[in-house]
Amino acid sequence: MKQIPHSPEAEKGVLGCIFFEPKMIEKVMQIITSDDFYDKKNAMVFQAIIELFASHIPIDLLTVREFIDDRQRLEDIGGNEALISITESIFSLSNAVQYAQIVKQKSILRKFIKAGNDIFLSGYNEQASASELLGMVAKTYENLSLIAETENKVSKISDLVFLLHDDIEDAVEFGDKQRGYVTWIPTLDKYTGWIHKWRTIILSAYSNTGKSALSYAIANAVLKQWAKVLYFSLEIPKEDLRDRLLSNYYEMPIQAFEKKSSLSSFDMSSYGEKELYIVSEMFAISDIERITKSIKPDVVFIDYVQLVKGEWNGEYEQMNDVARRIRKLSAETNCGIFYLSQVSNDGKQFKKWDVIPSKGSGELISVSNVALVLKEGEFEGKLDLIIAKNRHWRKGIAIELTPDFRFSSFEDGGEVQWGKK
Asked: What is the pLDDT of residues 394-418, one digit of tens each?
């Protein structure tokens, strides 16, 4: 009987390289995820490394051990001896990327084997109808198509240069801003370069901080630029979301919408002409993918991501699945995705501009182009919007916002030096 494809040496090799050269994690994360490891113990160690990296915590044996031990999983990976054995493995620091590619290749082979077995075994299911069996096969094929995404990452330089010429022509004809949508928070636009159709942005905050209200303001800013917007409101009914968006757009206190009779003489027909689509109720990530591909919006808003159901049982695995599929959806549909993440309010405080880890938050942040944190400011009535991650741009920027929750509006107070007021 043939052995299931896997490489213990490559799995330990890539982990060992990261322990000795932590900056390698940035390159490795572009190739593999924790799901690509065959040994679940190695997968747990890699996931701990991702979470630490996302939280700007140094990566070494001690921090990884403490992270795993805090979650009472140290014995599950084999204790201290297992972590030490990783560093004692035979590997070359210069081969970290090659080790990661081996791990990825073995993972892909295992997925093909599983898919083939699933199709084979479905033929023995005499209780299922032909249409049900075909549906199972189609689902298996859809899962396999995710693997093809890696092929799309390989491009000839001639093709990329040709696309650049197209981009330059568009920028000359329509202006650079035409390539994205401003948020109407000037300091944020200055440092993040607007919301682009291919970009994913995560906004993390404790509950009742104002993250939803900020998303309403940004959604309306995008709508005013004649964009098509799709808003998944997984926490509040669509009627409530409608009222909050209208309140912000027309600068009317939200309380006015509680007494509908007071709005009888107010003309809201101009807002009805906007290309805005609202979806409420709790949804699985597969529903979000299906609806987004059907509507083909320019920008998608998701409030909030912890309410999205993945296809895995564990919380970490579910968030990892959701995070990767959101990133893939953005690329496939050429839309920007602005999604909210609610940080568990466990009494911890933000340190500098770090994002406090919630379950699975490491993967959410690692796959995002921009990671924002919204927290209470150092002065009463102020909020700080912190750019915690900004791929290819400056990060560590704190922007002071003055909120007016009557209208879900925010005044940009400019850049402030975080922690030095």
From this structure: 677 899 999 999 999 999 999 887 6
Strands 195-196 and 370-376, bridge-based pairing: unpaired
Residue 181 exposure: Cα atoms within 13 Å on the Cβ side: 29
For the record, the structure tokens of 173 come out as 């004809």
- The string over 118-135, giving b where at least 16 C-beta atoms fall within 10 Å of a residue's C-beta and e elsewhere, is eeeebeeeeeeeeeeeee
Length of the chain: 421
Q: What is the pLDDT of residues 350-391, one digit of tens each?
A: 444 444 444 445 667 777 888 899 998 888 889 999 998 887
| Residue 39 one-letter amino acid | D
Q: Decide: 385 and 398 in contact? Cβ < 8 Å.
A: yes
Q: Does residue 345 sit in helix, strand or coil?
A: coil
Residue 341 pairs with which residues in a beta bridge?
204
For residue 27, the Cα-to-chain-centroid distance in whole angstroms is: 18
For residue 123, which amino acid is it? Answer: G
Cα distance between residue 319 and residue 36, in whole Å: 15
Instruction: Check if the beta carbon of residue 96 is closer than 8 Å to that of residue 20.
Output: no
Judge residue 214's burial from the number of C-beta atoms within 10 Å of its C-beta, 0-12 exposed, 13-18 middle, 19 or more buried.
Answer: buried
Beta bridge mates, 411: 402
Residue 411 CB contacts under 8 Å (≥ 6 apart), including other chains: 401, 402, 403, 404
